[in-house]
Amino acid sequence: MSVEFRFCPRCARPLTEREHGGFARRACPDERCGFVHWDNPVPVVAAVVEHEGYIVLARNKLWTQRFFGLITGFLERNENPDAAVLREVEEELGLKARDPRFIGHYGFERMNQLIIAYHVIGEGTITLGDELAEYIRVAPAQARYWPAATGLALRDWLIAQGHTPQPIELPARAR
């Protein structure tokens, strides 16, 4: 989630809303300072993990509702998204992932993130990392998608595989 800047990090003046580049942005009122908080989205990789013919969905420990989603993680500085998605699958599921195939990119406005989604094949035994509470495996033909960000990536992958996925209702917090 993006940080809400209230004061200029250069000169400490209170920031004001001004138009820059066609968008309202928080900016320093002192023209000599010139600071503009661009609030660019944070890149996140997401994986539709296929394991032994099933899709693996996981629940983060921080999620208060019992909702299962794709494996996700932040793209690190100087990291290739293909490598990042393989790393995240290994960190979060303990699986060796291979063959990353780009699905698409999706905006997740609530968290100010840009989701870069892939399909990967996971091999090995699932061992949950520190961030996950539990996982489920779903046959692709039975998978349903949530109509936001990573859910749209799952939907697009399922459609590309010849399935006709149906949407599920999102928990209020996940929208």
From TrEMBL:
Q: Name one GO cellular component term.
A: cytosol
For this UniProt record, the keywords arranged alphabetically read as follows: Hydrolase, Magnesium, Metal-binding
User: Which prosthetic group or cofactor does it need?
Assistant: Mg(2+); Zn(2+)
- InterPro entries from the UniProt entry: NAD-cap_RNA_hydrolase_NudC, NUDIX_hydrolase-like_dom_sf, NUDIX_hydrolase_CS, NUDIX_hydrolase_dom
| Chain ranges of the Nudix hydrolase domain | 40-160
Q: Which domain of life is it from?
A: Bacteria
Report the Pfam families cross-referenced here.
NUDIX
GO MF annotations in UniProt: metal ion binding; NADH pyrophosphatase activity
GO term, biological process aspect, one: NADP+ catabolic process
Q: Could you tell me which PROSITE patterns the record lists for this protein?
A: NUDIX (PS51462), NUDIX_BOX (PS00893)
Task: List the catalytic activities from the record.
Answer: a 5'-end NAD(+)-phospho-ribonucleoside in mRNA + H2O = a 5'-end phospho-adenosine-phospho-ribonucleoside in mRNA + beta-nicotinamide D-ribonucleotide + 2 H(+)
What protein family is recorded?
Belongs to the Nudix hydrolase family. NudC subfamily.
Specify the protein name.
Answer: NUDIX domain-containing protein
Species for this entry: Fontimonas thermophila
